[in-house]
Amino acid sequence: MEQQVVHESRVKKSLLNARVNLIFYFLTLALSFFSRKIFLDTLGADFVGLTGTLQNLLGFLNLAELGIGSAIGYVLYKPLFDHDESKINEIISVFGYLYRWIGFIILGAGLILACFLPLIFPDTKFEMGIIFFAYFSFLTSSLIGYFANYKQTLLGADQRNYVVTAYFQTATIIKTLIQMASAYYMGSYYLWVVIELVFGIIYSFILNWKINQVYPWLRSEVRLGKQLFKKYPEVMKYTKQLFVHKIGGFAQFQLTPILTYTFISLQLVAYYGNYTIITDKLNLFVLNFLNSTGAGVGNLIAEGNQNKIQRVYWELIAIRFLIGGIIVFAVSQLLPAFISLWLGPEYILSNTVLYLLLIIFLINIVRGVTEQFLFGFGLFYDVWAPFVEAVIFVIVAIICGHFWGLKGILLGNISSLMIIILLWKPYFLFTKGFKIPVYRYWINWLKYLLILIFSLGLSALVTKYIAIDPFKGWSEWILYACVVTIVVTVIELCLLFLFSQGMRDCLNRILKKWTS
After folding, report:
1. Dihedral sign from CA coordinates of 334, 337, 340, 343
2. pTM of the entire structure?
3. What is the pLDDT of residues 115-125, one digit of tens each?
């Protein structure tokens, strides 16, 4: 009975997280397209590229944090399951202590990096005043998270990430609306940056007020964190492992715009950003919908039912292949026309760039299940893998980027993902986590891949006979989008249902939930 209550609570929180995430996703999605258009028209592609490049530069300073938040989240699973408030207070105190030190390290590194800004942007049309002002504003916003917002990790581990989402996204929506108005009427770079900073501070105050409401018993004391740190050696153990683990993906995300600027121009950074703002939003859509199960997977593994654990794994794989396939096909058919109608035909990149982006997108969607289960099992000790991933990306991206520009940089991304994410990570999970032969993974995964390829090919064949030109106008684009999405959804869902046990189990679970 108690296990059933825990399961129902886990499912309820996962659904609430997904519901809140989806609501704000669609709100921010619509707003992001309007804001991007206004910022490009009023502030210019160079300014949009500049702010993106500065934020990516500052992102490297956040390497100091990578791993600690995830390690604390993992350590919190057990005391949250046991409702051990005293232990939770101690762990959050340790987290606050570590984050404060990281904040000081990032501040020092940020000041040093600032000295090199004139060398990084030698030929830009912007005055160094606006570059420095934007840089230090972004740096301040980043530091707020380390000194004030560290408690939000508790919400994520407790499957209450919907609280963070609701307040953060509300603040983001209001901030973006004000920035749009300021850009349209004033056209001031400085005002745009000031608004960015002010809302970061406001969000911090509101978030901490809400956390105190949700957990009135939370009494973390940063000053005691140093003594308590010795009581939880597993925090540093997992932190070291997770820090190294996240370098691979982090390096790719942060380096791609920087390499694009290095090999090509700030303008292409903005053009590339027009595409990635869409693929990133779509990726966020899937992650908001499915990553809400992350803490639930951790609790599921804690129960120890291996058959149930593996069944849920393949259900989640089936869902991600379904959603990933639908999005990949729809975007391949719709994105060029969307860019043309939204910003103008001059902003359209080559189909090769689009297809490479979609391959990266699909890999990142499918990888999430394996990473959730690796995290749930606490399997972080393959610390060589992210180094290899980062090295492969950098070498291939620099060599191919030199010859083929943006396409070559994206090839570096794909090469590293295929070797580490698609080959090594599943092997590690199946041999060390599930403790079953990895050939079971490859048999099922290849089956899903063949279903996906056949679904996309059949969908492309069907859509050739649709006499609608999405480039003509928004009404045609919307109609074409509806038809294309329906076609690929029906085809892929039917094939997955016929040939995938994971999809059948998933649909049965959903049906029972709705009819109960």
Report:
1. negative
2. 0.66
3. 888 887 777 77
